[in-house]
Amino acid sequence: MDTELAMRVARDHVELCFQAVLEMLARVLKGDDQPECVIAAAEVLGLLATNLGCLSWVPEDTISSVLEEFMRSSHGATRAQLAKLLRLMHADKVTMHVLRHCIEGERLDLDEEQQSRVMREIFDVRTLAGQAKAEGLLRAVQQQERLPADLQQASGSKQADKLARAIWDAYLKQRSSKSRVLVMGRLARALSRSLAALSDSCMVVLGDTTLDRLSDMGQQVQVLLLPAPQDVASEPQIASQELFDLLLVAEPMGYLDVGEYAEKLRPFIRRRELEDEKVADQVQCLVIEARERLEDARDELFSAGYYLADHVEAFPKLRRAAAEDGRAVTLLSLPSAEKELLKRSAQDKALERKSRRLREDEDRAQLEEDEQQQRNLLYATLFDPLLLDPLLLDPEEPVARCEVAYELGASKDEAEVVVFWLHGNNEDAEVWRPHLFVSPVEAGVGEGSSGRRLRVVAAIPPEGHQQWFQCSDEDAVRRGMEWYEMSDGPTEDAVAKARADAARNVSFGKPSLEELRCLQEIELCCKQLLRLIDDEVGPRTSKVVLGGFSQGGSVAAYLALSGIASAEMQQRFQALVICCSGVPVFHFLASKMQVGCLAARDEADARIDFPTVHMIYGRDDPEVKDSFVQTISDLCKRFDFPTVVQRFDRDENEERFPARARRQMLEEVLRLVIAAD
Predict the structure, then answer these.
(1) Which residues form the Serine hydrolase domain (predicted)?
(2) Res 425: pLDDT
(3) HSE-CB for 574 with a 13 A CA cutoff
(4) How confident is the model at residue 240 (pLDDT cuts 50, 70, 90)?
(5) In a domain, 377, yes or no
(6) How far from the centroid of its chain's Cα atoms is residue 207's Cα?
(7) Per-residue pLDDT for 104 more than 80?
(8) What is the pLDDT of residue 415?
(9) 325: which of 62, 159, 165, 242 fits an S-S bond (Cβ 3.0–4.6 Å)?
């Protein structure tokens, strides 16, 4: 209700609002445990009555209820608010008589002494009225404290002279050059006159918050209207080349913000040059204040970077001079110029370090933002067949493609099944020639042949490249995979239901930027290999087999399983043979396999044949863990890819895929490929 809008609404519906507030007050007055509600209701009634002039509408029964609650309640805040409301009624000509009638009425049944006590309590100083009066007195005192001593009353000039003489003898008399003193505070005017009268060699600058009645200060006193603390450095009389020999602050508390001014004045006060100096310039600030306020003033100066200097020889004399007028004094010093220089140098270095950290943080944040954008872009576009570079599919464009190291078996025009074999990084493709040997019978050209002509093409990276991509099998396995099993809830039934549709109830994590950059290399290899396949597949070729060792097997796996190839080419992929390959970021490839699996399941009428995955791995491979092999196999089967795992034993000193195992395993796989329908 304490808003202009609320009152505007209330004025349009005065009677309705007033009756509602009366009813609200009547209800809360009946509760014994709702003092806050009573306070609020009484305040709202007072606001309405005051602003809408409807106090005379308050019925006698409500006034009696308010009186009863006032006499009954022991809650201080409630009594104060009710007393305020009753005083408001007492001030109204109409309700005043109703209030007296209620106090004297039979309902309260009070004798004369009780009636008088109730009226005293309503206007008691401990209620809001008393508080308001006390606050008014406090404001008057504070206003008086903001006036200079000369404007309050005639100052004790003798006492000011004594203090000035003691200050002069202690700190200014012995100086060879002309002294310069800045005087501030409530007693600044009296002390400035006394100091200026002692000697012509002392220049007194009087800094005051008002220029009223300052025309009689004399020629030795420069009068200055103090600017705001933050503007001290721009005031010519303060920020001049002549430093102040002493800052004299006389009764500052309640008169000015001594801490703020003292801090801003530090560069303009003379201090000792060396930290080891123990005689000259030991005191930079002298504070005179009432005894009960001296500690507060001293704390303000401490916070401004001043130190206690009450150990100097002149302190007892100054203390006695101030005590004669009921005041106390304290002396303070600033760090030496040497220490201040070291501090400023340390601060500059700290600021430089902070600035450098901020720049580094900004650069790091910008880099993280750029990397996140790049990560999102790569994740959305890698191995997307719709974004496949058309240049890789245009035979008229001279785009880099994989090279052919050698060919085995049937010719390009006669081959029905073509095997593309990719060696590992930094390998010579010739080492695989003996193990990829295809007999005339296996090639479909000899007696007893199956009739399916087989051709093997050994593919190598484009000219000038020795590696397919940089990630090793060991690094790929060490990075691992990331996916999450999903279910409708943690119950056994929900988990069992999710397992029934395992291909759908799994989610794969987003690869890191470093992993996506590795996939970017693999995608390029897949595109280059795909260009080679387009060139090497003959008119009779109906099936394509992709295979390889180590990194070569990983490239073959991504091309065969990611769906990057066209639908026509994807249908030709009959089998995938991966040998000892640590397929990088397999959870990314698994997400592509999941998409293909669910699409095939949703198209019930479409017949989609996924390539058979042949996995050949040695037991206790030093780079590819057995658990990694098992996980790849499980994920392939999960997404309906036929999978055959073949394992071989190897001696500790043998290479990862020994020659004896190569010929046996590859011959067996090639026979399976030839025999497959």
Answers:
(1) 538-638
(2) 93
(3) 19
(4) confident
(5) no
(6) 45
(7) yes
(8) 87
(9) 159
- Ranking 51-55, 58-62, 160-164, 305-309 by mean pLDDT, the lowest is 51-55
Q: What is the CATH number of the domain that holds 189?
A: 3.40.50.150
For the four alpha carbons of 26, 27, 32 and 35, in that order, the dihedral sign comes to negative
Q: Is residue 492 part of a domain?
A: no
- Number of neighbouring beta carbons within 10 Å of residue 364: 11
pLDDT tens digit sequence for 137-181: 556 555 655 667 664 444 456 778 888 888 888 888 877 678 889
pLDDT of residue 152: 42
**Per this entry, what is the length of the chain?**
677
Other C-beta atoms lying within 10 Å of the C-beta of residue 234: 9
Residue 381 inside a domain? The answer is no
Question: Is 80 exceeded by the pLDDT of residue 603?
Answer: no
Cα–Cα distances (Å) from 35 to 22, 82, 126, 401, 545, in that order, read: 17, 11, 18, 87, 86
Is residue 118 within 8 A of residue 110, CB to CB? The reply is yes
End residue of a domain, out of 335, 356, 375: 335
For residue 184, CA distances in Å to 206, 288, 365, 404, 418 come to 6, 10, 50, 95, 100
Q: Are residues 209 and 170 in the same domain?
A: yes
Q: What is the CA radius of gyration of the chain?
A: 48
Residue 523: give its domain's CATH number.
Answer: 3.40.50.1820
For residue range 207-222, what is the model confidence (pLDDT) as tens digits?
988 887 777 777 888 8
Supply 153's token pair: 């009353």
User: How far apart are the C-alpha atoms of 396 and 110, rounded to whole Å?
Assistant: 115
Do residues 127 and 206 share a domain? no
Domain boundary among 105, 139, 173: 139
Residue 357 domain-assigned?
no
Q: Are 403 and 459 in contact (CB under 8 A)?
A: yes
- DSSP β-bridge partners for residue 224: 207
Closest CA to 504 of 395, 417, 594, 385: 594
Say if strands 202-208 and 221-225 run parallel, antiparallel, or are unpaired: parallel
* Whole-Å CA distances, 540 to 133, 394, 536, 674: 110, 21, 11, 15
Instruction: Please say whether the beta carbons of 179 and 152 come within 8 A.
Output: no
* Same domain, residue pair 104 and 185: no
Query: Do both 447 and 318 map to the same domain?
Result: no
Based on DSSP, count helices (H) and strands (E) in the chain, helices before strands: 24, 16
> How far apart, in whole angstroms, are the C-alpha atoms of residue 588 and residue 148?
80
| Span of 311-325, 428-442, 468-482 with lowest mean pLDDT | 428-442
> What is the pLDDT, as a whole number, of residue 623?
94
The total of other beta-carbon atoms located within 10 Å of residue 289's CB is 25
In this predicted structure, what is the pLDDT of residue 446?
Answer: 46
Structural contact between residues 638 and 503, judged by C-beta atoms closer than 8 angstroms: yes
CA–CA separation, 71 and 122 (whole Å):
10
> Which residues, in sequence order, are bridge partners of residue 252?
none
Looking at the 3D structure of the chain, how many domains does it have? 3
133/152 same-domain check: no
Q: Which domain holds residue 438?
A: 387-479+513-675
